[in-house]
Amino acid sequence: MEPLLLEELQVFQDASPITSLQLSSKRHQLYAGSATALAQLPLHRCGAYGKACAECCLARDPYCAWDGNTCTRYVPNTKRRFRRQDVRNGDPNVLCSEDPRRDTVPQKQLYGVEGSTVFLECIPKSLQAHILWTHQRAPNDPQREVRMDERVVRTERGVLLRSVQRADAGLYLCHATEHGFTQPLLRLSLEVIGARQATGAASAGDPQLAAGIPGRKVWYRDFLQLVERPPLGATDKLRFDFWKVRTKLPQRQQAAIKAVTEGDLGVCCLLLSLLASGPLVALATSHGFW
């Protein structure tokens, strides 16, 4: 049987090397020790595979199975007709044909200012999944595969669109392909606001805001590095930095930003970058946030 990578973890905060490992089959726990600490890790984290039958089965985790409602811990004495898992094949076409949520795909609305940067985030539950992006400009247009180049950059967490153009607007679909099975994970509808429209809106709301928009470049490099491989503690620091920037804005602007960033690290990253360059203020103004 082929080796299967289920999860990658950094066990210790100080990145200490692991000097000993002990597996407890009875307790279903893995104990890892270093020179300064000891960690206890469960062998099953079935909730990490999402709430869909296909994702649970594609994971091919021997400790997890689909029980008809959720991905839950596999119990050997459970009746077979209530358990759906095939570690060798993991074929959702066979195991999940009766799942009513099979064709349900979440959708999100995104906005971008022409010439700025937009991040399309899509993270598969399985480490074995290959992500494919398609773009549909209008409802009657065909879906076309998104090609990567210097302006369209693939990351481990999605796709970064640099210098957004009007032609980038439309519906983006994130597909996951694994073990011969393809499923849509997410729909992202992108609306691109013209640079002049955004500048005019900012000027009408506050003349001082417009000065920060024309010719300003969104410095995405630190953001891209953080999203790709965030160092330990960087996510907390980013949220703190974003909070410091946000608290300097008027209360109405703070409330609007909080409403769209609550609990979403990816949005915090992008908005922190945009706050320094101007388009965020123009975009929010043009959509009536303030």
Automatic annotation (TrEMBL):
Keyword line: Disulfide bond, Glycoprotein, Immunoglobulin domain, Membrane, Secreted, Signal
Domain (Sema): residue spans on this chain: 1-43
Coiled-coil segments: none
Main location class: membrane
UniProt xrefs under SMART domains: IG, PSI
Location of this chain's protein in the cell: Membrane; Secreted
GO-annotated molecular function: chemorepellent activity; semaphorin receptor binding
GO BP annotation list: axon guidance; neural crest cell migration; positive regulation of cell migration; semaphorin-plexin signaling pathway
CDD domains per record: Ig_Sema3 (cd05871)
Family matches, as PANTHER family: SEMAPHORIN, SEMAPHORIN-3B
Similarity remark: Belongs to the semaphorin family.
Name of this protein: Ig-like domain-containing protein
Species name: Hirundo rustica rustica
